[in-house]
Amino acid sequence: MQCERVEEMISLYIDNQLTPEEKMEFEKHIKECKKCYDEYLSLLEMVNSINSLVEKPLPSGFKEELRNKLEKVHKENNRNRPTKKIFIKWASIAAIFILGMFIVSPILNFNSPLNKLGSKDAGLSVGKEESPKEYLEMASDSIAAEDQQNIEESAVEDQQNVKESKENFSFQKDMQEKIIYSGGITLQVKDTNKVLDEITQYTQDIGGFIQHSSMNHPEANSSSSNRSTAGGGYIYLRVPADKFDIAMEEIGKMGNVQEKQRSGENITAQYRDMEIEVKSLEIQEARLLDILKKADKVQDIVEIEKEINRVRTEINQRKTMLKNWDQMVDYSSIEVNIIQEKVPSTSIEGNPFKDLGQKIQRGFTQSINYIVIGVANIVIFIFKALPFIAIIVIGYIVYRKWLKDRLINKNK
């Protein structure tokens, strides 16, 4: 199994959504591949950290207070609109003046911020004799300062967007909801094979897929005296989220429903936090790449590249988590337990003697196969034990010869 495939299966393994065969291949691979094993541990730690977070409820009266503040800001914005236009005009003139100073100062050899950035005396210059640790600390401080400025600018822009309309704010909030739906059904049926085929076909028709399924044959459980059913089955399927409710109803019609449950998990807050973390890490990556271009010492380059690799690893882990969440949101899961009705004891239903000859033939062939397999296992065991048997025989012969020689010497 390739590492790329294993990396895609890590989150499914943690969520226990792999088939037994895929789980065996996955566990075998991570035992042999240290890189995939480390990535699995890293993602597992992140999942445990996320699951340990507790969502705090909003304080009472928060919505009313927010609505009042938005209306107040909207009214003030309408009153101060002429002042805002004057401010934008003078701010544009000041921006043009500062940009002109940045462009002209290198030509006139002024001590502009651009000259300081390009000189070896600059705070982020790699030409100074700072240690790699100090260099990365200074670089991180610079990145943090720029990120803080970007966050403040984004906050101002978001506030202006919120001022436009209270209804638009609510609409955008609803559009961003991320909910994972799941359900479970227990059906009692007369024919397990038929129902399994019907569920499989129906799932494919609505654009879903079967993740894994299994079936218990009645013959395999005939020795259990306490069983009330003759066989059964299990199927785990994924359907498009918009067809989840319809699928639950249609599957319930395929048998006698013994139990039905459904649930929905809202991961909107976690999803947004994860997206913000990804954007922040991408900004850090861009800053580090820009700093790397200016580095001229091998030791500093190695330290910066190590930091870049760490940031990229965190980005990939979070993007993988977002991708898995998207799949779980888009495709709801339904777990169906199928219980086949026990053979009736008061009346004869159907024709139990149908295909009797074929059943006898299958039973006889199965018994012969058991015997052949048993004999083959015995032969294999004997050949495996031959070296040990030879050692025991040789030891016994040596012991008898030694005992015989001792008796002869004693008689003499």
Automatic annotation (TrEMBL):
<keyword id="KW-0175">Coiled coil</keyword>
<feature type="transmembrane region" description="Helical">
    <location>
        <begin position="370"/>
        <end position="399"/>
    </location>
</feature>
<keyword id="KW-0472">Membrane</keyword>
<keyword id="KW-0812">Transmembrane</keyword>
<dbReference type="InterPro" id="IPR027383">
    <property type="entry name" value="Znf_put"/>
</dbReference>
<dbReference type="InterPro" id="IPR025645">
    <property type="entry name" value="DUF4349"/>
</dbReference>
<dbReference type="Pfam" id="PF14257">
    <property type="entry name" value="DUF4349"/>
</dbReference>
<feature type="domain" description="DUF4349">
    <location>
        <begin position="178"/>
        <end position="400"/>
    </location>
</feature>
<keyword id="KW-1133">Transmembrane helix</keyword>
<feature type="coiled-coil region">
    <location>
        <begin position="264"/>
        <end position="314"/>
    </location>
</feature>
<feature type="transmembrane region" description="Helical">
    <location>
        <begin position="87"/>
        <end position="108"/>
    </location>
</feature>
<feature type="domain" description="Putative zinc-finger">
    <location>
        <begin position="3"/>
        <end position="36"/>
    </location>
</feature>
<protein>
    <recommendedName>
        <fullName>Anti-sigma-W factor RsiW</fullName>
    </recommendedName>
</protein>
<dbReference type="InterPro" id="IPR041916">
    <property type="entry name" value="Anti_sigma_zinc_sf"/>
</dbReference>
<dbReference type="Pfam" id="PF13490">
    <property type="entry name" value="zf-HC2"/>
</dbReference>
<comment type="similarity">
    <text>Belongs to the zinc-associated anti-sigma factor (ZAS) superfamily. Anti-sigma-W factor family.</text>
</comment>
